[in-house]
Design goal:
With 224 residues, the protein is mainly alpha-helical. Helices cover 82% and strands 0% of the residues. α1 runs antiparallel to α2 and α5 runs antiparallel to α6.
């Protein structure tokens, strides 16, 4: 029985999307910050993987996104994560890994559920769900590190919740939400092209098999 998930094509697609996750995360961090943290561009390839390859692929790409954030924090490239790792290493690692994984997983399941009625709607919902899940879990998890945030980042007179929602997530979330909204038609187009090429390939295989079936009796008669 063939393994339908770990095919060479799917592994190749995952490798390409992973490369995009790495490059976009590094570029997003180096370009600058909207507030305290850098905007995340990697949700686009994560959603693309969830839509094209399924929830498991989206979750895997989201998990690897979290790993990259942890590595960049540990090396000092991401100062915000660097500080959190220094004072709350376990919670920081868990937060980075869980929020990315959940964003990819939820996007994949939402697309799978909605595409039965409308492919385009499924892509749009999956694209917009990713930043909502990613940001929502970030805020929720960061609240457990309130003391660290208050000591290092929260200005006097602000609450931790205000800092997280406005200072950290505010502009970043708007940016990520709009980017994913703009990218969703492109993701939908890629999905349709891939589906069309897959159907064409299946049709060609079926025609070839049918042709071989018809040739077999003729060949048998000629041999007689």
């Amino acid at each position: 029985m063939k393994n339908r998930y770990f095919t060479s094509k799917k592994i190749a697609h995952l490798a390409i999307l992973l490369a995009l996750v790495i490059v976009l995360q590094i570029v997003g961090t180096l370009i600058g910050k909207l507030g305290v943290t850098a905007p995340s561009l990697v949700l686009i390839p994560i959603v693309l993987g969830a839509v094209l390859l399924g929830p498991a692929a989206g979750a895997l790409l989201g998990f690897l996104f979290g790993v990259i954030v942890v590595v960049m924090g540990a090396t000092g490239m991401d100062y915000f994560t660097f500080v959190l790792l220094g004072e709350q290493p376990v919670l920081t690692v868990l937060l980075c890994l869980i929020k990315g994984t959940a964003a990819g997983l939820v996007s994949g399941f939402l697309f799978r559920a909605i595409r039965k009625k409308n492919d385009r709607a499924g892509v749009i919902v999956a694209s917009l769900a990713a930043p909502i899940v990613n940001t929502g879990l970030f805020i929720l998890g960061a609240l457990f590190m309130s003391d660290t945030l208050s000591a290092n980042f929260v200005p006097d007179g602000q609450t931790v919740l205000y800092f997280l929602v406005i200072g950290c997530a505010g502009l970043n979330f708007i940016f990520e939400f709009l980017i994913n909204a703009v990218a969703s038609p492109a993701i939908y187009t890629v999905m349709k092209v891939r589906s069309s090429s897959r159907r064409a390939s299946v049709s060609a295989d079926e025609e070839a098999a049918s042709s071989d079936t018809h040739r077999a009796p003729v060949a048998a008669k000629e041999n007689k």
